[in-house]
Amino acid sequence: MFNQKSKSETKETVSGGSASIIAAGTSLKGDISSAGDIRIDGTLVGNIHCSAKVVIGAQGKVEGDIVGQQADIMGTVSGTVTVKELLQLKGGSNVNGNISAGKLQIEPSANFNGQCHMNQGNSPVETGNTEADPVLALG
Asked: Model's pTM, two decimal places?
């Protein structure tokens, strides 16, 4: 039962109000879709699409895009991060890729390499208009 090889794509759907955790030492390959909060303390090679809050723990590593309402990143992300509300890059985090957020908080020991698009609730992907969005290029 536990010795079977996993599929190359994993898709997880959670009902609203629930939280999902990918524990440290766990590796997943594939996309995750969640209606509830999700926390990654292990490794994910794939994209996250979440209707709630995404938390990447200090040992967490994501190689893919993240889309959510809110996000706290303490670990490593390589990919685009799109958050409608508040994105927090906590101390020791490492983000390589562009970010788009309604509000952004970066602690001094966080590392961010990419472009930042600040929005008032509308991401450039949704509106298709990036000309009016202020852009801050770091790195």
From this structure: 0.74
